[in-house]
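Hi V.,

You were right to ask for the full record rather than a summary. Here it is.
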Amino acid sequence: MTKAGIFFHPPGELSQSGVLDVGLKCAHSCRFCYYSFMAEAASGKSASPGSQHGALRQAAFRTTEDSLRIIDLMADHGLINFDITGGEPTMHQGLPDMVRRAVERLMSVRVITLGQFLLRQTPERQGGGPHLLDTLLEAGVTDFLFSLHAATEDGFHEATRGSLAKVLAAMDALDRVGFQYSANTVIHAGNLDDLPRIAELSAARGVYHHNFIVFNAYYRWDSPESIAGLQAAYTDIAGPLTRRRAPRPARVDEPRGQPGSRTGILRRASARARGRSARHLCARAR
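Predicted structure:
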């Protein structure tokens, strides 16, 4: 283990990590989403690009109560950390409660997200209270895994219909308080030239681990029309993925917030989460 609450189990041993899938509901439109053609597949139809994400809009989330029971079961069976995924888990109203339950059960928890909603205000605090990011940090979240699929605003919007600026703003907020997070990039034909710049964005921030995952057409991607122009050959990927670029100057962060400011709240929550993770590890060791 090299980061607070992040465990790397020895090869050959059973992992003590789990995954909580809160459901496939999602507001995003990632071109390469593995689940995006499930409605057509369930009806026996071939995938059609025009209706790619319809099923994700209509999908339901797992209930908060069911999610909490799953967390309890994972803890009862000796798991010590897990990912929360979807769909887009930050759309689930019960996400803070799931993080709190993980903390109660001495588990570390990572949220996998496109980062579009972390800096929105939580519904119960519309009058000027904390953003969702503040709420999750205060609840005791251990880590985030951000989807970073392009290095430009236009490229990110083309790939996901989301905003790169929103992802980077969430990363910057975490950088200002020294809170750990990682990143994930799906490699496809549309972002090959962007890979070195994506790596630069990652290296200039507090990303401690970055996954580059090659898109493969499976799980209902059964239409040549839907795959065309998206899946890249490994020979085309190798060049951009291994290309070296000149080091960029260190990025100058904005001044840290004073106690009571937005970043002050984030910093205190981050410190509590890191301290809690250390206490959890000590408890597990005993």
